[in-house]
Amino acid sequence: AKKVLTFGTFDVFHVGHLRILERAAAFGDRLVVGVSTDALNEAKKGRPPVYSEGERSEIIRALSCVDEVFLEESLELKADYIQRYGADILVMGDDWKGKFDQFSDLCEVAYLPRTPAISTTEVIEKIRV
Ligand code: C2G
């Protein structure tokens, strides 16, 4: 069975998140998702996520296209995770294009186009006003 691996924060879950997970799942037979911890998110974006890592993983785990979820503790552990979960292919949104090419000796690497005009930040802005 071909195993697909992808990563993300998936905060304030929206249709852009759903679509990339469904498209990632279509690359293989099993989809494993690394959900960024609250600590990693805060370090990366300077603000804590709206939903906690427990809530975000619970949502991702409930999706029919997702088979397995774990917490991504560090951006530096990609090679580890690829090996630990036996990934055949790493799929990421094209905002990460080129950033993970160094792992192509461990597994296939693919970047998918993002869904235009939707983001967690935009949703937060819309609700704020
Ligand atoms: N995404 C998308 N379309 C959007 C918004 C997001 O396809 N309109 C995709 C992103 O490209 C990414 C995934 O949804 O592949 C998750 O997005 P984020 O939650 O923003 O993930 P990010 O914070 O980039 O975390 O190790 C990598 C990081 O954990 C990725």
Layout of secondary structure:
Blueprint: E1 3-8, H1 15-25, E2 30-36, H2 38-45, H3 53-61, E3 68-72, H4 78-84, E4 89-93, E5 108-112, H5 120-128
Parallel strand pairs: 1-2, 1-4, 2-3, 4-5
Residues 7-10, 16-17, 20, 36, 72, 75, 92-93, 95, 114-115, 118-119 line the site of [cytidine-5'-phosphate] glycerylphosphoric acid ester.
Describe what you observe in this structure.
Helices cover 34% and strands 22% of the residues. The protein is built from five helices and five strands, in the order E-H-E-H-H-E-H-E-E-H. The radius of gyration is 14 Å and the shape is globular. The relative contact order is 0.22. The mean pLDDT is 96.
Please provide a brief summary of the model.
It contains 5 helices and 5 strands, in the order E-H-E-H-H-E-H-E-E-H. It starts with a strand and ends with a helix. The relative contact order is 0.22.
Q: What features would you highlight for this structure?
A:
34% helix; alpha/beta; single chain; 22% strand; 5 helices; 129 residues; binds [cytidine-5'-phosphate] glycerylphosphoric acid ester; 5-stranded parallel β-sheet
User: Which cofactor or ligand species appear?
Assistant: [cytidine-5'-phosphate] glycerylphosphoric acid ester
How do the strands of the widest beta sheet line up side by side? 3-2-1-4-5
Kindly report the average pLDDT value: 96
Structural class from helices and strands?
A: alpha/beta
- Helix and strand sequence: EHEHHEHEEH
State the distance separating the first and last CA atoms. Answer: 47 Å
**How many strand segments?**
5
Major sheet summary line: 5 strands, parallel
Parts with pLDDT < 50 across at least 5 consecutive residues: none
Shape: globular
SS summary, helix count: 5
Radius of gyration: 14 Å
Helix coverage percent: 25-40%
The percentage of residues in β strands lies in 15-25%
